[in-house]
Amino acid sequence: MSNAAYFSVKLSTPLGPIRGKVAIETGPMRLAELVPTALELTNILVDRALRREEQRGKKVTCGPGCGVCCCQMVALSPPEAFYLSEMIASLDDNVREKILGRIQRIVRTVKDRGMVEELMAPEYSDDTALAIAKEYFGLGMSCPFLEDYSCSIHPNRPVACREYNVTSPAAWCADPYSHEIEKVPMPMPLSIPLARLHAQLTDTKPRLIPLTLVPMWVAEHADLKDRAWPGQGVFERFMAEVGTPPG
């Protein structure tokens, strides 16, 4: 960071306070540059949530090689979409082409089934989201980043993936809509404050984007990908959104 400064983070959460310092670009900042901070805060909250479950006598059943949940529709905020797009662009040529090829096959499948418009809708109710998520899962399409049932971008995986930990039997995850999946309770996903911030800065409505449609969405919003705002102001507004209850 060419014009970095350290800012204090003081957050009150249901899992306890978070305090620390974060290096933030004080010059122009793109929204993708906020994502690492959101991911680190998510890691802290997930660690605390897992310890709380252990104290309650519950054990997380997720483990290496268990990639069934990676067939679910993963929703990203616009800043996460920009971040993921940049991460894909940074991959080795052969790896990038393989990932993009998998994404293109998934896009063709959802297009053939007439699902794209609904998946890309900026607004939908919980009932509508559940229905399309169930239909998407039923297609059995693995995440394009899944390699040998393990995440190939684990350090850079989205907020939604970090927060998805279950304590119910692992076998139930193969049919999550027929079983009562017990997920580790978490506070508001930090994808929501990121989505709210993007909406404020771009004068649009908050929205989320399915992971496999990120390249399509980013291409359609290329003008926003590299748009920048004063770093300190963006960070402060993000922190304010993190402290705002969902609703």
In short:
With 247 residues, this protein is of the alpha+beta class. Helices cover 45% and strands 12% of the residues.
Write up what this structure looks like:
With 247 residues, the protein is α+β, with helices and mostly antiparallel strands. The chain has one domain (31-226). Helices cover 45% and strands 12% of the residues. It has a two-stranded antiparallel sheet with strand order 1-2. Helix 2 (78-89) packs across helix 8 (214-220). The longest helix is centred in the first third of the chain and has 21 residues, at 35-55. The protein is globular, with a radius of gyration of 18 Å. It starts with a strand and ends in a 5-residue tail after the last helix. The model has no long low-confidence stretch (mean pLDDT 89).
Provide key terms for this protein:
single chain; 247 residues; alpha+beta; two-stranded antiparallel sheet; two-stranded antiparallel ribbon; 10 helices; 8 strands; globular
**Averaged pLDDT:** 89
Tell me the strand percentage band: 5-15%
* Overall spatial form: globular
**Residues in helices, as a percent range:** 40-55%
Structural class: alpha+beta
Radius of gyration: 18 Å
Please give the largest β-sheet: 2 strands, antiparallel
Low-pLDDT runs: none
How many structural domains are formed by the residues? 1
As laid out across the biggest beta sheet, the strand order is: 1-2
Spell the H/E element sequence: EEEHEHHHHEEHHEHHEH
Give the count of helical stretches: 10
Q: Would you count the extended β strands for me?
A: 8
> What is the multimeric organization of the chains shown?
single chain
* Distance from first to last alpha carbon: 34 Å
